[in-house]
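Many introductory courses stop at the sequence. We go one step further.
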Amino acid sequence: MRKLLIRAGTLISASETIQADLLVEGEKIAAVGLNLPANGAEVIDADGKLVMPGGIDPHTHFDLPMFGTVSSDDHYTGHKAAAFGGTTTVMDFVPQDLPTLKENLDAWHAKADPKAAIDFGFHMNITRFDAQTASEIPGLVEHGVTTLKVFTAYNGRLRLSDGEIFQVLRIAKQHGMLTMLHAENGDVIEVLTAQALAEGHTTPEWHAHTRPAWGAVEATLRAAALAGQAEAPLYIVHMNAAGEVDQLEYARQRGLPVMGETCPAYLFFTIDHLRRPDGAKWICSPPMRTVADNNRLWQGLAAGTLQVIGTDHCPFFFNGEQPIIYEGQPVAIPGKELGRPPFVAHDDFTKIPNGLPGVGDRLPILWTYGVRAGKITPNQFVALTSTTAAKIFGLYPRKGSLLPGADADLVIWDAERRLTYGLAHAHHRTDYNLFEGWELVGFPEKVLLRGNLIVDGERWLGRPGQGRFLRRQPGAPVL
């Protein structure tokens, strides 16, 4: 059995920081302690470096059809970008496009299994609810899928009624599953979008104007109330507004089993970025808000009101007409230019594919602008980007920990490395990076997946198909 000794690193978990060696045997962490004997193990000297569990991103969209195109990262390119950023587990959402839930899962496995470069799990979207769907949901558990996602927006496409969401929550509770929810007000969005277009407001900032923060705030409280009435756990995805944090805090103080996630983009960007000439780069749903919203989200993370930082990674090319070179091959995929002439008569924010790159940015950006900036501690960083997600989504302690017996998903972090970040380091298969030119201090040096070195500096040692599907068990805790 292959052995690897990571010697003299500073181990950072969600709960403690210690100086120790870490021994890997095969795919597992075998021991943690001082002065562990090598006994023939390969040795990595981590003196002066940090050792952390690999990141877990519970919110990604790879190879996702949208607006006549597809998100530009597939389950290989996106996984590779994740790994370069220190993330070793991702969780993707399966659309409910085919007649049965099992057929949808099979279709997503066909996309992901041969390409997966890191370990992965699935969430199942429930965007059509009827007696058949209700009867099929419990069967997802035997396929290792224990999470469902519902929407209060996207009328006529993805949205369920409150009564349908309530029924999904109750079924999920009965079978030890977790419901995830996209919180916006679809009715208000429909009215405001039609009005904006009729008045000739078509530029990117109107994407935000037509999806007001109050809709997200109201939908968050409404969703928490539905969860309370169903006595079922709820996880609200990509929270982006200060009022949402307030409502989450209100619900949790009253004992409701509601948890929240935010994403890096909502911590750093605002509607002003949509007003730029390249504002389409920042179009996603829900949209960017204000500096006050950024600050309240940081407060929610520091206080523990928000539990997880995912990314909602769903990248598109800014100009898909111009190929980029990825792994030596030209790649051109239609992207955000679909909302600009000549593809439409005039700018039309409703035609711009919704989504941002981010799966490779999350850890490096949050280390410099979260930990080094004093907004969160190193232990909170590990909790928010790895350990808490592992617990909520039924993967702990196999993932997200530095405990003996856990998968050896490890990041050796150089906390003193300085670099100017952007496309050259992000590895996403797209033509822009939201954090282009940002100065970073701290970056992954080596990344291991189940004991196998897959990133060594700038070298990629991984391959398609090495990632494994993670079958999750029901009954994960509410944190």
